[in-house]
Amino acid sequence: MCNGISELVERELSKLILKAQITSSGAVKLGKYVVCDGHADSVVRVVTHAHSDHIIDLDKSIRSIPLIAMTPPTHDILRELGYIIPQEKCIKLDYNVPFEIVDEVLELYESKHIYGSAQVLVEDYEGYRLVYTGDFKLPGTPIIECDVLVIEATYGSPKHIRPFKGEIEVILGDFIRNILSKGPIYIYGYHGKLQEVMEILRREGIVAPFIATDKVYRITKALVKYGLNVGEIYHIESIEAKEIMKTNWYIVFDHVGSKSTIHNARHSSVYKIFLSGWEFNKPIRRLSERSYVIALSDHADFEQLIEYVRNAKPKLVITDAYRESSAIELANEIRKKLGIYAIPLPQS
User: Fold this and answer.
1) Is the Cα torsion angle 116, 118, 123, 124 positive or negative in sign?
2) ∠ Cα 30 102 116 (to 5°)
């Protein structure tokens, strides 16, 4: 398997690598019965969260897999996105609640990514602990000790270190406060990240009215019952929102991929802010006179990925090469820095 690995260790690794896989279609297989974030034959499909690269072929899974598992918030987000899971197939699991599947046990753990996102632990029939992190960032995500770790690799390159990650929430709050004094703001991001920003801004003392486009509004309202703390929010087509927009003191939240007419600024005084995790040099980058990128990520950077692996103490690491090409670099760095055998999957 690898030069310098003893015959005993090599036999162990050969056994472990059969217990977790990432298929060529992006499905993460853990043990005999569980598949995550992609479609493959299994007893249970777990949806770790509702972003597009983690709900691949979900309609196909709903039709053909006996059980679909997720946290209650993820279920509600999926419903607002148009996915209907039949009641007899739907398993809504809270964190840290074991679910037995024949001779293995499935358990979901919190993941600091978006509301309802989860890590997946499968303890198999031989007692091996198999973990898939899904997407996460630190601090805030519990690190699970395991034998096999399947880890995301979005920022798996050593170049992907964000020196200001500890201060970005305060920076964001101060920047929004300053811009609001000059005109209304339109914030563009992905579902989940938009709601995170709403909470950050409220914590930072921003009291301007929040307005949201239709799907963002419905997802936000669905998450309020799970503890999302954003105060009052108005649907962009409501009478209240239209009155508020006459004041020029408000914040609109819209999905970055939306085809709505919101992207065409209605006023010359509108400021546009795009949320991106791909900024590593500075927390705020100016695009034009009234347009900015803010470096707010909901993924672990390279240092946090290494920290997770170090503390999880796995015997084998699989880096997710289906969703990110940095998985190859991350596997190399794990071997080099931590001396833990690591491979990117699927391999091309």
Assistant:
1) positive
2) 50
Distance, in Å, from the CA atom of 333 to the CA atom of 119, rounded to the nearest integer, reads: 22
Cite the DSSP H helix spans in the chain: 7-16, 58-64, 72-80, 168-180, 193-203, 214-224, 239-245, 302-312, 327-338
Whole-structure pTM value = 0.91
**% of the chain surpassing 90 pLDDT:** 83
- Tokens representing 290 are 């009234």
User: What are residue 71's phi and psi, to 5 degrees?
Assistant: -75, 160
> Could you give the dihedral angle defined by the CA atoms of residues 272, 275, 278 and 280, in that order, rounded to the nearest 10 degrees?
80
How many whole angstroms separate alpha carbon 20 and alpha carbon 220? 35
Chain position carrying tokens 């087509």: 237
Strands (E), the chain: 20-22, 28-30, 34-36, 44-46, 67-70, 90-92, 99-101, 104-110, 118-123, 129-132, 148-151, 185-189, 210-212, 233-235, 251-255, 271-276, 284-288, 291-295, 316-320, 341-345
Q: Would you say how long the chain is, in residues?
A: 348
Q: Which domains does the chain have, with CATH numbers?
A: 7-160+300-345 (3.60.15.10), 168-295 (3.40.50)
> How many CB atoms neighbour CB 101 within 10 A?
18
d(Cα 127, Cα 130) in Å, to the nearest integer? 9
DSSP 8-class letter at 34: E
What would the pLDDT profile of 222-281 be if each residue is shown by its tens digit?
999 999 999 999 999 999 999 999 999 999 999 987 655 444 444 557 899 999 988 888
| Distance set, CA 8 to CA 4, 21, 317, 343 (Å) | 12, 22, 18, 19
